[in-house]
C-alpha cells in the first residue's frame, strides 16, 4: 500500500501538496484513493478548527415560545402555525417545541 501511495504521489506530483489544497483544487476528481497518515490528518483537523474559529460567533439571542409570540403579536396559535408553514415567520424546533427569534418578532413589529 505504501509503495502504491508513493508511486501515485510521484506520478501526479502531489508529494508537496496538503489535503486542503487537494480538496480546494479538486485535483483528484474521485479517481485516486488517498492514504492519509496521522500527520496529515492532524493538519487537516487543525485547519478545520482554525476555519471554524475564524467565523463570527453567534450572539446569544433571546428566543420566544409560541405562546409568548402569540401574546406579543396578538395573534392566534393557528395564525402562527400558518405563518410558519408559509415561511413568513420561521421558528426553530428544539425537541418538540418551536421557538422564535426575538429579532424576527421585532422586525415584524417594525422595531
Would you write up a description of this structure?
The protein is 55% helix and 10% strand. The protein is mostly helical and 111 residues long. It has 2 domains: 2-54, no CATH class; 63-109. A 3-stranded antiparallel sheet has the order 1-3-2. The radius of gyration is 25 Å and the shape is elongated. 5% of the residues are buried.
Instruction: Let me know the number of strands.
Output: 3
How would you classify the helix and strand content by structural class?
mainly alpha
Helix share of residues? 40-55%
Give average pLDDT, whole number.
79
* Lateral arrangement of strands in the main beta sheet: 1-3-2
- Cα-to-Cα separation, first versus last residue: 64 Å
| Parts with pLDDT < 50 across at least 5 consecutive residues | none
Keywords:
55% helix; mainly alpha; 2 domains
Summarize the structure.
The protein has 111 residues and is mostly helical.
SSE topology:
Layout: H1 2-12, H2 19-25, H3 38-54, E1 63-65, H4 66-73, H5 77-86, E2 92-94, E3 97-101, H6 102-109
Antiparallel strand pairs: 1-3, 2-3
Amino acid at each position: 500500500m505504501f509503495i502504491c501511495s508513493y508511486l501515485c504521489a510521484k506520478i501526479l506530483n502531489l508529494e508537496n501538496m496538503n489535503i486542503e489544497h487537494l480538496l480546494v483544487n479538486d485535483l483528484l476528481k474521485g479517481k485516486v484513493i488517498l492514504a492519509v497518515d496521522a500527520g496529515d490528518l492532524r493538519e487537516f483537523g487543525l485547519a478545520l478548527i482554525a476555519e471554524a474559529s475564524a467565523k463570527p460567533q453567534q450572539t446569544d439571542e433571546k428566543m420566544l415560545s409560541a405562546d409568548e409570540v402569540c401574546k406579543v403579536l396578538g395573534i392566534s396559535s393557528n395564525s402562527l402555525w400558518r405563518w410558519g408553514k408559509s415561511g413568513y415567520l420561521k421558528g426553530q424546533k428544539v425537541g418538540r417545541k418551536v421557538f422564535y427569534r426575538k429579532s424576527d418578532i421585532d422586525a415584524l413589529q417594525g422595531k
